[in-house]
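Retro notes (design track)

What went well: tokenization of the new backbones is finally stable.
What didn't: we kept losing track of which sequence belonged to which structure.
Fix going forward: every design gets posted as structure first, then sequence, in one message. First example under the new rule, 270 residues:
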């Protein structure tokens, strides 16, 4: 078997509060992501999804466990050792407006990863940024705009352009459509799919929306209180969910009643 792009083994993240008290956000999870593949990570709010994504990019420090990227363990690298890998590991955030610097223009925002990467000479950044914006459906008239002058969909397109401009191998998409209108959501999911094909990028797609997951993901891992309870190809999960939590999650997502909540820890995870 060929080596996966990302391989996570026994990942644990505890947030320490006062003294010895801690929140066990991620409680020993393992998964792999192949090159150019999309793995969906689904679960309710508070189940640990964002923490997993942030650990993969070392935006938070894992408590224990291994994270291999192209075979080498990145979980113990210093920030300096990690720097050359940064352009290959990117993230698109849940709230597009909050994730953009309000004082920076679209051009400055999208060019910034090129400046950090220092591979391309500064004289080429404008051309590369213009081309990347074009790929996310934004013309050159957007270059000098500020985030506040953009619609939510345009803001998220800028976030996607920024994440993809250095041709990363992995992008963590943290609920990238959850704050968008349903009509716009479809466009963004379609865009993410077509960019994946043209740029051969792998995604970790974090979501609580099973329907979005079905559209985008090759495989799905279901996370519950920091544990992965089920992991399978998308079609198998959709047609034959094995774990009772997966079934409950699917029925909750499909329920028209937004007050429908799952009971807390019905399966007695620690
Ligand atoms: N910086 C933090 N400090 C303390 N607890 C945190 C922190 N970040 C997340 N948590 C807790 O970890 C758990 C998982 O959070 P999170 O990864 O954000 O879940 P999700 O993205 O699935 O909603 C939650 O109980 C949350 O309150
Ligand atoms: Mg989250």
């Amino acid at each position: 078997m060929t080596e996966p792009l990302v391989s996570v083994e026994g990942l644990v993240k505890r947030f320490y509060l006062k003294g010895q008290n801690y929140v066990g956000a991620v409680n020993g999870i393992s998964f792999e992501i192949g090159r150019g593949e999309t793995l969906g990570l689904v679960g309710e709010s508070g189940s640990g999804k964002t923490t997993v994504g942030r650990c993969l990019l070392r935006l938070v420090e894992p408590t224990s466990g291994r994270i291999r990227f192209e075979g080498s363990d990145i979980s113990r690298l210093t920030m300096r050792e990690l720097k050359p890998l940064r352009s290959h590991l990117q993230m698109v955030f849940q709230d597009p407006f909050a994730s953009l610097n309000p004082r920076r223009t679209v051009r400055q925002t999208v060019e910034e990863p090129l400046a950090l990467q220092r591979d391309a000479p500064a004289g080429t950044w404008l051309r590369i940024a213009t081309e990347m914006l074009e790929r996310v459906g934004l013309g050159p008239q957007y270059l000098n705009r500020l985030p506040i002058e953009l619609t939510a969909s345009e803001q998220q397109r800028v976030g996607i352009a920024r994440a993809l401009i250095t041709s990363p191998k992995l992008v963590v998409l943290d609920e990238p459509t959850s704050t968008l209108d349903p009509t716009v959501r479809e466009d963004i999911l379609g865009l993410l799919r077509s960019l994946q094909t043209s740029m051969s990028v792998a995604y970790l797609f974090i979501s609580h929306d099973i329907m979005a997951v079905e559209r985008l993901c090759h495989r799905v891992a279901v996370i519950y209180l920091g544990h992965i309870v089920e992991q399978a190809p998308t079609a198998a999960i959709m047609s034959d969910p094995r774990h009772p939590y997966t079934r409950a999650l699917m029925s909750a997502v499909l329920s028209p009643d937004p007050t429908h909540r799952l009971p807390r820890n019905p399966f007695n995870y620690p």
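Added context from the reviewer: The CA atoms of residues 53 and 172 lie 6 Å apart.
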